[in-house]
Design brief:
heterodimer, A: 120 residues, mainly alpha, 4 helices, B: mainly alpha, Arc Repressor Mutant, subunit A, 2 domains, globular
Chain lengths: 120, 197
Protein backbone atom coordinates (compact mmCIF):
# COMPACT_ATOMS: atom_id res chain seq x y z
CA UNK A 1 0.00 0.00 0.00
CA UNK A 2 1.37 3.44 -0.99
CA UNK A 3 1.38 6.59 1.18
CA UNK A 4 -0.77 8.36 -1.45
CA UNK A 5 -3.49 5.74 -0.98
CA UNK A 6 -3.33 6.12 2.79
CA UNK A 7 -3.46 9.95 2.51
CA UNK A 8 -6.82 9.71 0.75
CA UNK A 9 -8.22 7.66 3.66
CA UNK A 10 -6.91 9.82 6.50
CA UNK A 11 -9.65 12.52 6.48
CA UNK A 12 -12.14 9.73 7.16
CA UNK A 13 -10.06 7.84 9.73
CA UNK A 14 -8.89 10.73 11.88
CA UNK A 15 -11.78 10.32 14.33
CA UNK A 16 -10.72 6.74 15.01
CA UNK A 17 -12.99 5.07 12.47
CA UNK A 18 -11.84 1.42 12.14
CA UNK A 19 -9.57 0.82 9.16
CA UNK A 20 -8.34 -2.25 7.32
CA UNK A 21 -5.47 -4.12 8.90
CA UNK A 22 -3.29 -3.31 5.89
CA UNK A 23 -3.87 0.43 6.37
CA UNK A 24 -3.21 0.20 10.10
CA UNK A 25 -0.03 -1.77 9.55
CA UNK A 26 1.23 0.75 6.99
CA UNK A 27 0.59 3.73 9.28
CA UNK A 28 2.31 2.02 12.22
CA UNK A 29 5.44 1.51 10.14
CA UNK A 30 5.45 4.76 8.11
CA UNK A 31 6.64 8.00 9.71
CA UNK A 32 5.32 10.09 6.82
CA UNK A 33 1.77 8.76 7.24
CA UNK A 34 1.99 9.06 11.03
CA UNK A 35 2.93 12.73 10.61
CA UNK A 36 0.05 13.24 8.20
CA UNK A 37 -2.40 11.60 10.62
CA UNK A 38 -1.04 13.85 13.39
CA UNK A 39 -1.75 16.91 11.23
CA UNK A 40 -5.38 15.86 10.79
CA UNK A 41 -5.70 15.26 14.53
CA UNK A 42 -4.35 18.75 15.26
CA UNK A 43 -6.72 20.17 12.67
CA UNK A 44 -9.68 18.43 14.33
CA UNK A 45 -8.68 19.62 17.82
CA UNK A 46 -8.32 23.19 16.54
CA UNK A 47 -11.72 23.04 14.84
CA UNK A 48 -13.29 21.91 18.12
CA UNK A 49 -11.72 24.96 19.81
CA UNK A 50 -13.45 27.26 17.31
CA UNK A 51 -16.71 26.35 19.06
CA UNK A 52 -15.84 28.59 22.01
CA UNK A 53 -14.40 31.42 19.92
CA UNK A 54 -17.51 33.58 19.80
CA UNK A 55 -17.99 36.43 17.35
CA UNK A 56 -19.50 39.63 18.69
CA UNK A 57 -22.62 40.72 16.78
CA UNK A 58 -23.49 44.38 16.35
CA UNK A 59 -25.41 45.73 19.37
CA UNK A 60 -28.60 46.19 17.35
CA UNK A 61 -28.99 42.49 16.51
CA UNK A 62 -30.64 41.51 19.79
CA UNK A 63 -33.12 44.40 19.70
CA UNK A 64 -34.00 43.71 16.05
CA UNK A 65 -34.47 40.00 16.69
CA UNK A 66 -36.75 40.65 19.66
CA UNK A 67 -38.69 43.19 17.57
CA UNK A 68 -39.20 40.62 14.79
CA UNK A 69 -40.46 38.14 17.39
CA UNK A 70 -42.77 40.79 18.82
CA UNK A 71 -44.29 41.46 15.39
CA UNK A 72 -44.80 37.73 14.88
CA UNK A 73 -46.52 37.40 18.27
CA UNK A 74 -48.86 40.26 17.35
CA UNK A 75 -49.68 38.58 14.04
CA UNK A 76 -50.38 35.33 15.89
CA UNK A 77 -52.65 37.15 18.33
CA UNK A 78 -54.59 38.85 15.49
CA UNK A 79 -54.92 35.51 13.67
CA UNK A 80 -56.14 33.91 16.87
CA UNK A 81 -58.77 36.64 17.41
CA UNK A 82 -59.90 36.43 13.79
CA UNK A 83 -60.17 32.66 13.86
CA UNK A 84 -62.07 32.95 17.18
CA UNK A 85 -64.49 35.45 15.64
CA UNK A 86 -64.84 33.24 12.59
CA UNK A 87 -65.78 30.36 14.87
CA UNK A 88 -68.28 32.60 16.69
CA UNK A 89 -69.88 33.65 13.38
CA UNK A 90 -70.07 30.05 12.18
CA UNK A 91 -71.56 29.04 15.54
CA UNK A 92 -74.14 31.83 15.42
CA UNK A 93 -75.15 31.00 11.86
CA UNK A 94 -75.36 27.31 12.74
CA UNK A 95 -77.52 28.11 15.77
CA UNK A 96 -79.84 30.31 13.73
CA UNK A 97 -80.22 27.62 11.08
CA UNK A 98 -80.95 24.98 13.75
CA UNK A 99 -83.52 27.25 15.44
CA UNK A 100 -85.21 27.95 12.07
CA UNK A 101 -85.33 24.27 11.23
CA UNK A 102 -86.84 23.44 14.63
CA UNK A 103 -89.48 26.16 14.25
CA UNK A 104 -90.36 24.95 10.76
CA UNK A 105 -90.66 21.38 12.01
CA UNK A 106 -92.93 22.46 14.88
CA UNK A 107 -95.15 24.45 12.50
CA UNK A 108 -95.34 21.47 10.17
CA UNK A 109 -96.34 19.11 12.98
CA UNK A 110 -98.91 21.57 14.30
CA UNK A 111 -100.49 22.12 10.85
CA UNK A 112 -100.71 18.35 10.27
CA UNK A 113 -102.39 17.84 13.65
CA UNK A 114 -104.86 20.60 12.82
CA UNK A 115 -105.55 19.06 9.44
CA UNK A 116 -106.16 15.66 11.08
CA UNK A 117 -108.45 17.21 13.70
CA UNK A 118 -110.53 18.92 11.01
CA UNK A 119 -110.70 15.72 8.99
CA UNK A 120 -112.03 13.71 11.94
CA UNK B 1 -22.51 22.09 49.50
CA UNK B 2 -21.18 23.63 46.27
CA UNK B 3 -23.50 23.63 43.27
CA UNK B 4 -22.48 23.03 39.69
CA UNK B 5 -22.97 26.35 37.82
CA UNK B 6 -23.26 24.56 34.46
CA UNK B 7 -26.00 22.29 35.79
CA UNK B 8 -27.75 25.32 37.29
CA UNK B 9 -27.59 27.19 33.98
CA UNK B 10 -28.93 24.16 32.14
CA UNK B 11 -31.78 23.80 34.62
CA UNK B 12 -32.61 27.49 34.18
CA UNK B 13 -32.64 27.08 30.37
CA UNK B 14 -34.91 24.03 30.75
CA UNK B 15 -37.26 26.10 32.90
CA UNK B 16 -37.33 28.86 30.28
CA UNK B 17 -37.93 26.34 27.50
CA UNK B 18 -40.87 24.84 29.43
CA UNK B 19 -42.37 28.29 29.93
CA UNK B 20 -41.82 29.21 26.26
CA UNK B 21 -43.52 25.99 25.18
CA UNK B 22 -46.58 27.15 27.12
CA UNK B 23 -46.55 30.37 25.08
CA UNK B 24 -44.59 32.60 27.48
CA UNK B 25 -42.97 35.18 25.16
CA UNK B 26 -40.92 36.74 27.95
CA UNK B 27 -39.32 33.36 28.65
CA UNK B 28 -38.53 32.92 24.97
CA UNK B 29 -37.02 36.43 24.83
CA UNK B 30 -34.76 35.46 27.71
CA UNK B 31 -33.68 32.35 25.79
CA UNK B 32 -32.83 34.60 22.84
CA UNK B 33 -30.77 36.91 25.09
CA UNK B 34 -28.83 33.94 26.46
CA UNK B 35 -28.13 32.22 23.13
CA UNK B 36 -28.02 34.83 20.36
CA UNK B 37 -24.23 35.32 20.38
CA UNK B 38 -23.76 31.56 19.97
CA UNK B 39 -26.38 31.45 17.21
CA UNK B 40 -24.83 34.47 15.47
CA UNK B 41 -21.37 32.87 15.62
CA UNK B 42 -22.68 29.70 14.00
CA UNK B 43 -24.55 31.76 11.37
CA UNK B 44 -21.38 33.67 10.47
CA UNK B 45 -19.39 30.46 10.25
CA UNK B 46 -22.05 28.96 7.94
CA UNK B 47 -22.66 31.97 5.69
CA UNK B 48 -19.25 33.69 5.84
CA UNK B 49 -21.16 36.98 5.66
CA UNK B 50 -22.20 39.23 8.56
CA UNK B 51 -25.33 40.62 6.90
CA UNK B 52 -26.54 37.15 5.92
CA UNK B 53 -25.75 35.92 9.41
CA UNK B 54 -28.02 38.59 10.92
CA UNK B 55 -30.86 37.50 8.64
CA UNK B 56 -30.24 33.87 9.56
CA UNK B 57 -30.34 34.67 13.29
CA UNK B 58 -33.69 36.46 12.99
CA UNK B 59 -35.17 33.76 10.79
CA UNK B 60 -33.89 31.02 13.12
CA UNK B 61 -35.48 32.51 16.24
CA UNK B 62 -38.70 33.12 14.32
CA UNK B 63 -38.78 29.44 13.33
CA UNK B 64 -37.87 28.43 16.86
CA UNK B 65 -40.71 30.49 18.36
CA UNK B 66 -43.19 29.01 15.88
CA UNK B 67 -41.92 25.48 16.56
CA UNK B 68 -41.14 25.61 20.29
CA UNK B 69 -44.37 23.75 21.05
CA UNK B 70 -43.01 20.78 19.08
CA UNK B 71 -39.62 20.84 20.82
CA UNK B 72 -39.65 17.60 22.80
CA UNK B 73 -36.69 18.44 24.99
CA UNK B 74 -34.87 15.19 24.28
CA UNK B 75 -31.99 17.29 22.94
CA UNK B 76 -30.51 20.43 24.46
CA UNK B 77 -32.09 23.72 23.39
CA UNK B 78 -28.71 24.82 21.97
CA UNK B 79 -28.47 21.71 19.77
CA UNK B 80 -32.04 22.27 18.57
CA UNK B 81 -31.12 25.88 17.73
CA UNK B 82 -27.99 24.73 15.85
CA UNK B 83 -30.17 22.52 13.65
CA UNK B 84 -32.66 25.31 12.97
CA UNK B 85 -29.80 27.72 12.22
CA UNK B 86 -28.17 25.22 9.86
CA UNK B 87 -31.44 24.81 7.99
CA UNK B 88 -32.10 28.57 7.83
CA UNK B 89 -28.55 29.24 6.64
CA UNK B 90 -28.79 26.56 3.96
CA UNK B 91 -32.06 28.07 2.71
CA UNK B 92 -30.57 31.57 2.63
CA UNK B 93 -27.35 30.49 0.93
CA UNK B 94 -29.41 28.71 -1.76
CA UNK B 95 -31.57 31.80 -2.29
CA UNK B 96 -28.54 34.08 -2.50
CA UNK B 97 -26.85 31.75 -4.96
CA UNK B 98 -29.90 31.74 -7.22
CA UNK B 99 -30.25 35.51 -7.03
CA UNK B 100 -26.61 36.39 -7.52
CA UNK B 101 -25.83 33.36 -9.72
CA UNK B 102 -22.49 33.28 -7.98
CA UNK B 103 -20.17 30.32 -8.39
CA UNK B 104 -20.08 27.82 -5.51
CA UNK B 105 -16.48 28.56 -4.64
CA UNK B 106 -17.06 32.30 -4.25
CA UNK B 107 -16.76 33.58 -0.70
CA UNK B 108 -16.98 37.02 0.81
CA UNK B 109 -14.11 38.81 2.41
CA UNK B 110 -13.18 36.86 5.53
CA UNK B 111 -14.87 38.38 8.57
CA UNK B 112 -12.45 37.18 11.13
CA UNK B 113 -9.62 39.32 9.77
CA UNK B 114 -11.00 41.99 12.10
CA UNK B 115 -9.82 39.91 15.04
CA UNK B 116 -6.22 40.30 13.94
CA UNK B 117 -6.45 44.01 14.58
CA UNK B 118 -7.48 43.51 18.19
CA UNK B 119 -4.49 43.84 20.53
CA UNK B 120 -5.81 41.18 22.88
CA UNK B 121 -6.07 38.77 19.96
CA UNK B 122 -2.49 39.34 18.85
CA UNK B 123 -0.99 36.44 20.74
CA UNK B 124 0.62 33.77 18.62
CA UNK B 125 -2.00 31.11 19.33
CA UNK B 126 -5.03 33.31 18.64
CA UNK B 127 -3.57 34.52 15.33
CA UNK B 128 -3.24 30.88 14.36
CA UNK B 129 -6.86 30.25 15.31
CA UNK B 130 -7.79 33.26 13.19
CA UNK B 131 -5.90 31.63 10.33
CA UNK B 132 -7.97 28.47 10.80
CA UNK B 133 -11.21 30.49 10.93
CA UNK B 134 -10.28 32.22 7.68
CA UNK B 135 -9.48 28.89 6.04
CA UNK B 136 -12.90 27.59 7.09
CA UNK B 137 -14.57 30.70 5.68
CA UNK B 138 -12.71 30.22 2.42
CA UNK B 139 -14.18 26.75 1.92
CA UNK B 140 -16.96 26.42 -0.68
CA UNK B 141 -20.35 26.80 1.11
CA UNK B 142 -21.33 23.14 0.73
CA UNK B 143 -18.11 21.89 2.30
CA UNK B 144 -18.00 24.66 4.89
CA UNK B 145 -21.47 23.83 6.24
CA UNK B 146 -20.56 20.20 6.92
CA UNK B 147 -17.15 20.95 8.45
CA UNK B 148 -18.63 23.59 10.75
CA UNK B 149 -21.61 21.50 11.85
CA UNK B 150 -19.67 18.26 12.34
CA UNK B 151 -16.15 19.24 13.38
CA UNK B 152 -16.84 22.52 15.18
CA UNK B 153 -20.33 21.95 16.64
CA UNK B 154 -20.30 18.17 16.85
CA UNK B 155 -23.67 17.49 15.24
CA UNK B 156 -24.17 13.88 14.09
CA UNK B 157 -24.07 13.12 10.35
CA UNK B 158 -27.76 12.13 10.40
CA UNK B 159 -28.88 15.48 11.81
CA UNK B 160 -26.67 17.41 9.39
CA UNK B 161 -27.93 15.43 6.41
CA UNK B 162 -31.54 16.03 7.46
CA UNK B 163 -31.15 19.79 7.91
CA UNK B 164 -29.20 20.26 4.68
CA UNK B 165 -31.44 17.96 2.64
CA UNK B 166 -28.69 15.58 1.57
CA UNK B 167 -27.86 11.92 2.19
CA UNK B 168 -25.64 10.81 5.06
CA UNK B 169 -23.18 9.41 2.51
CA UNK B 170 -23.00 12.79 0.75
CA UNK B 171 -22.45 14.53 4.09
CA UNK B 172 -19.51 12.23 4.85
CA UNK B 173 -17.93 12.72 1.43
CA UNK B 174 -18.20 16.52 1.77
CA UNK B 175 -16.73 16.38 5.27
CA UNK B 176 -13.68 14.47 4.08
CA UNK B 177 -13.21 16.87 1.14
CA UNK B 178 -13.51 19.82 3.48
CA UNK B 179 -10.96 18.40 5.91
CA UNK B 180 -8.56 17.72 3.03
CA UNK B 181 -8.88 21.32 1.80
CA UNK B 182 -8.25 22.67 5.29
CA UNK B 183 -5.27 20.42 5.69
CA UNK B 184 -3.87 21.69 2.38
CA UNK B 185 -4.55 25.31 3.33
CA UNK B 186 -3.01 25.13 6.79
CA UNK B 187 -0.13 22.67 6.47
CA UNK B 188 1.75 23.79 3.43
CA UNK B 189 4.70 21.68 2.40
CA UNK B 190 7.16 24.56 2.74
CA UNK B 191 6.71 24.29 6.50
CA UNK B 192 5.89 28.01 6.88
CA UNK B 193 2.40 27.19 8.13
CA UNK B 194 3.07 23.67 9.25
CA UNK B 195 2.45 24.69 12.85
CA UNK B 196 -0.51 26.85 12.08
CA UNK B 197 -2.91 25.13 14.44
Amino acid sequence: MRCEDIARLLPATVEGTPVDLAVQTHIESCLRCQAELARYRRLLRALQQLRTRFLEPSPSLLAQTLAVLGEESERQAVRSVLSGRRLAYVGAIGGAVAAGATAAALLLVRSRRRALALAS
Amino acid sequence: MATDPTAEMRAEVDRLVDAARRGDRAAFDELVRRTYVDTYTLAVRLTANEEDARDVVQESYLRAWKGIGKFRGDAQFSTWMYRITANAAATLVQKRRRRRAEPLDTVDEPIESALDAQPEAATESSVRMAELARAVQALPPKLRAIVVLKDVYGLPHEAIAEELGISVAAAKVRLHRGRKRLRDALFEEDGRSANAV
